[in-house]
Amino acid sequence: MAKKSRRARRQARKVAQPVRISEPSPTVASGPAPKEVNFAKEYHYVIEDLRRIAIIAAALLALLIVLALLLS
User: What's this model's pTM, rounded to 2 decimal places?
Assistant: First the structure.
């Protein structure tokens, strides 16, 4: 088997060295400052929908319990 040349050994040594990664520098936002959002005002319909879903789920659970008692 042939002996490796010095060039091949040097290249192999270079590949094995760890690579340093520098920390990214913080960037400054160039746009306007974000506006404050009142989520309660913007998404009032979500709470109404969640309340409606909870009422329907409770009614269906009660119906299942009543049916289980009647049919057993």
Answer: 0.47
C-alpha 4 chain-centroid distance: 50
Spatial separation of the C-alpha atoms in residues 59 and 71, rounded to whole Å = 18
SS3 for 22-62 is CCCCCCCCCCCCCCCCCHHHHCHHHHHHHHHHHHHHHHHHH
CA gap 5, 15 in Å, rounded? 16
pLDDT tens-digit series, residues 34-55: 888 888 888 889 999 999 999 9
Query: Residue 53 is encoded by which pair of tokens?
Result: 């879903």
CA distance 34 to 20: 35
